[in-house]
Amino acid sequence: MVNKIITSVSILFMGCLVQAQTVGEVFKKITTGYSIAQPLQYKTDYKLFKDHKSTKVEENYKGVFYKNAANEVYIKINDTEIINTKKTNIKVSHSENAIVVSNPVDNYFGEADFNKVFELCKLISFKDFKTYWEIVLEPKTYSGLTYSKIVLNVSKTYFIQKQIFYYNTGINFSKDYKGTDVNYPRLEVVYSDYSRKAIPPSVFNTQNYLSFSGQNSIVLAQRFKKYEIIDQRIISNNIK
Fold it and tell me: pTM of the full predicted structure?
């Protein structure tokens, strides 16, 4: 459950556009920095706290983000890997021994993401702390988002330094499956070591995980032979 929470917000940081013009300008420059056709890499550190004020870390996961000049993406968060190329999207869950194959995402950091969250979030505050901006957002009523507040720290070079998600839905932290220890957690994500250094092409090679035989047949690489395949491309094609 906790791992899924962390994974689900791994790319949300690019989805918050707000009404104030100065904040809008900041986010437009962030969009440019992340989506420009140049390599980009950075590290992530996810810390989950039991409630909004707790100082004790309940779970801590490390991650990395790699993007090449073709805007193909590799993301790793704890035991989950995501590879998005021009041809396919692959999500590997090593804890569940499962691989999900779906159609590629056209743009992880496009205007569509901004517009969607713009409809769901409102600006609470926008503060200048000299070396970074602090932006506080609040999901609108009936937005469907599971947060009561989102705090973002943005560097003056227009990269996200930190995000804090305050959840408004309870999570059971009990170590005993029969027990109950429901709290409203806080997730802090720190981004560091930004670099434009080129990433080896092998990082984005999907044949490290699987290959395609014909239109619908998927052949897993030897080390993943025991993994379950969930082919969501078929579902998408049926819908069309």
Answer: 0.83
